[in-house]
Amino acid sequence: MAMTDATVQLPEAIECPLCLGKGELSRTEVLERLGMKDFARVAQLSAEEAIRLVLKKEKDAEQARWAKFDAELARRLAEVTGRHSAELQKLRTEKEEFVVRLEEFRKNASATLENAKQQERLAAERELQEQLASLTKRIAELEAAERLATDNI
Hints:
The longest helix is centred in the middle third of the chain and has 113 residues. The N and C termini lie far apart (about 145 Å). The protein contains two helices and two strands. The relative contact order is 0.03. Helices cover about 80% and strands about 5% of the residues. It has a two-stranded antiparallel sheet with strand order 1-2. The protein has about 150 residues and is mostly helical. The radius of gyration is 57 Å and the shape is rod-shaped.
């Protein structure tokens, strides 16, 4: 940060009022001999210290904001993670229920197929028995007709 000096710049080297211009002393040395501090320097140092303190305070405030941000981010991340975990657990439970139902459907389909095959076999067996009974009856009729024919001869 650059500060503009609103005061008029005083020359660093001035004629010494104590020696009436016989030698040149720096402004700081003249003021020191007169028992005065260099107020411009003190003001500059005070301003630099004030700027340093403001910068430190701002840096501390920025760190506090980042810490608050990190805490809020962690809280929200934990919240989202919790919701995600709960939903994931719910979906896993649903998946397990579907797997159980699918296995039941497979067993039922297998049993139904087995029953259908058994019914088809029973129906075929009944049909064959009916055909066998019909043929047996026809054979008996033909044997009776043959006997009648042989008896009449």
